[in-house]
Every structure is written in structure tokens, then in C-alpha cells.
Amino acid sequence: MNSKISSILISCIVFIFLPSLITSQTCQKSCGNIPIKYPFGTGPGCGDPRFQPYVICNNQQLSFKTHTGCYPVTSIDYNNQVLYINDPSMSTCACTQPSKGFSLDGNAPFSFNDDTVFALLDCATDSSPIYKSNGGVNSTFPMCDSQGAPVCSLLYSCQAISRLNLPISTCCVYTPVDLGPAFEMDLEKLHCSSYSALYGFNGQELNPQAWKYGVGLKYKFNFNNDYPDMCESCEKSSGVCGYGGPYNSFLCNCPSGFNTSNDCFLGSSWSNSFRNVPWQTDILLIIALGWFMILALM
């Protein structure tokens, strides 16, 4: 075979295999400045399929999606399995604004974290279902937590919230357990114009300006809340846990961009003592195959 034909064949082989050499990991390990670990993912096929429709990475912004809106994720506490989000429409000590409320989808694998406190603001005392008349004296339904009175009092010490033009202060601490099985907080039905949510006092219980405003959402890996062994092995091999196929079976997405059904270590099914770097293994295999084809055609 002359040198010209050989050069053409080598060029073709390089063009065929070059994309494999430069393929990057499909499932990323971060979204913006937030680390991404199981059960979350940065796109379809990444993480756990049950969580993929609700936690979305778009243009390096991690968001949480429900039927009431799309909310930026501020942080994730992987040790305690809590995801924290911010609702830009809710009221804080710095700003009071109208809101439609916040709700979780009924089939979403999330629940409100016990530390989350909701406070309903600017509710109509004559028509809101959280108020009732008892001999001309207003009293609250059990959904208003009497132990939340200090929270309401401190919220109304904020200049923004104190400007609400109300005959009396209407602030009702709305505990998550009372949101019902659908976790629905519809402010229109409750005849309230706004709400505030916080998940921590930041060590300054008497200073509402320093509180951690937002919503904490608890999640579980599965019924027994056990971290999947296959996912743990995948992550130890620099892989990212994902899924694929018609049954959303487990896949380990490796740094080379390829998926495996186990982990990214070569020979892990034979021996745990000999393990190669994943991307080096892929490149060596491709180069060897390329040279074999060249020699076979010469």
C-alpha cells in the first residue's frame, strides 16, 4: 500500500476516534457553585430518575421546580439530606411583597424539613379560614401555632412588614405538618396576601434581619433511606451516578464520557487490587485498536 493511501487511512481513523478521546463527562459534579451528588443530577440520565424532574441545572443555575413555580436552590446539606431553596416572591425582613404561596407536588420525593417555619401575613380577619369568630372575639384555628408568637412579633418589628396597612397584626405561623397531604399553601384560598419562610435563626434569634429566609426540603434515597452501594462504588471511581435504558437502570457515568453498569475501574469485577485510571484506559484501548486497523490494512 502506497504512502498516500496510508496517510488517508490514518487521517480517517484519527477523525473517527478523536471525539472519543476528548469526550467529557456527561453528568457534571457541580452546577454553578453547588456540588452535585446523588440523588441529584445535572441533566437527564444523571442522578436518580425520581428527582430529575424537580431539581434542574440550567445555565449553571440549580433550581427546584413545582407546580407553583421554579425556585433557585441556595445550598444542599448532603449529610442531613436537606435541600434549601429561596422563593423570590416571599416576604422577608427587608421586603414585603404579594405572593401566591408555595406548594410541593404530591408525588415529589420531598417533604418540609422540621426546621422550616411558615408565617402567613396580611390575612383578612373577616374572611380567612384561619380566623373564626367566637362571640365577637377572633381566635385562630389549630393551624396557627401559638408557639410561633415570638416569630410573628419579631417579624412585625421589621420596617418593611410593619408598613402593612392593617387594623391588627395578622401573622399566623403555619407549621408544615398542617399543610395537609398535598403540602398545599394557597394564599388566595387562605385570603392572605403574603408569607414569610425561614429555616434558621443564624444564632441571632432576636434579630430577624439576620435570619435564614427560605424553605428547607427533606429528601430520602429510598424507603429505607440507604445510600445505594452501586452508587457509592461509582463515586469512589470518579464516576457520577445516573440511569438509562427502558427501565431506568443504574449507570455509572465515567470521566471519559462512557457509561458502565458497575464503576469506572477496569477489572473491578476480577480484582479490587488492580485499578487503572479510567480515562487512560479508554485512550489506550482506542490507540491500540487504531494501530491494529492500520497494520491490517498495510
TrEMBL record:
<dbReference type="InterPro" id="IPR032872">
    <property type="entry name" value="WAK_assoc_C"/>
</dbReference>
<feature type="domain" description="Wall-associated receptor kinase C-terminal">
    <location>
        <begin position="210"/>
        <end position="256"/>
    </location>
</feature>
<keyword id="KW-0732">Signal</keyword>
<dbReference type="InterPro" id="IPR025287">
    <property type="entry name" value="WAK_GUB"/>
</dbReference>
<feature type="domain" description="Wall-associated receptor kinase galacturonan-binding">
    <location>
        <begin position="27"/>
        <end position="87"/>
    </location>
</feature>
<dbReference type="Pfam" id="PF13947">
    <property type="entry name" value="GUB_WAK_bind"/>
</dbReference>
<dbReference type="GO" id="GO:0016020">
    <property type="term" value="C:membrane"/>
</dbReference>
<dbReference type="Pfam" id="PF14380">
    <property type="entry name" value="WAK_assoc"/>
</dbReference>
<keyword id="KW-0325">Glycoprotein</keyword>
<dbReference type="GO" id="GO:0004674">
    <property type="term" value="F:protein serine/threonine kinase activity"/>
</dbReference>
<dbReference type="GO" id="GO:0030247">
    <property type="term" value="F:polysaccharide binding"/>
</dbReference>
<protein>
    <recommendedName>
        <fullName>non-specific serine/threonine protein kinase</fullName>
        <ecNumber>2.7.11.1</ecNumber>
    </recommendedName>
</protein>
<feature type="signal peptide">
    <location>
        <begin position="1"/>
        <end position="24"/>
    </location>
</feature>
